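quick q for whoever's on today - can somebody do inverse folding on this one?? i tried earlier but teh output was garbage lol. tokens:
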């Protein structure tokens, strides 16, 4: 059975995308067109520029809609609030301010620079 080891995002502005994920604690290795970060659970998050993707898929175009969403677990409800505020104050898009969800989590929703939904959550 194949093992999911990485998630890739195509970025229209690699430095801005790196800055967004840095606010979530993700530190990418050096690179100009493809960068990776290994998360504490071993999953790799990869960013590629549009040019890299077109180098092997010349007809690639950016789609609209929800092709992908990421969810970051936080250590506490207060951490959800703090990270959401830090990201929004840095000029990135907040989709939905933190709230206590009926399923027992403190939850918040952001958007990365390319519109990828990024959720933050912690057990209440």
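ok took a stab at it. sequence:
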């Amino acid at each position: 059975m194949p093992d999911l080891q990485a998630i890739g995002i195509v970025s229209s502005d690699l430095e801005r995308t790196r800055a967004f994920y840095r606010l979530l604690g993700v530190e990418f290795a050096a690179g100009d067109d493809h960068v990776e970060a290994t998360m504490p659970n071993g999953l790799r998050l990869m960013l590629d520029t549009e040019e890299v993707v077109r180098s092997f898929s010349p007809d690639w175009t950016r789609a609209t809609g929800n092709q992908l969403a990421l969810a970051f677990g936080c250590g506490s409800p207060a951490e959800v609030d703090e990270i959401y505020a830090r990201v929004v104050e840095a000029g990135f898009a907040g989709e939905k301010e933190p709230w206590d969800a009926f399923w027992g989590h403190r939850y918040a929703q952001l958007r990365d620079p390319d519109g990828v939904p990024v959720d933050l959550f912690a057990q209440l």
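fwiw The chain has a mean pLDDT of 93. also The chain is about 25% helix and 35% strand. so keep that in mind when u check it
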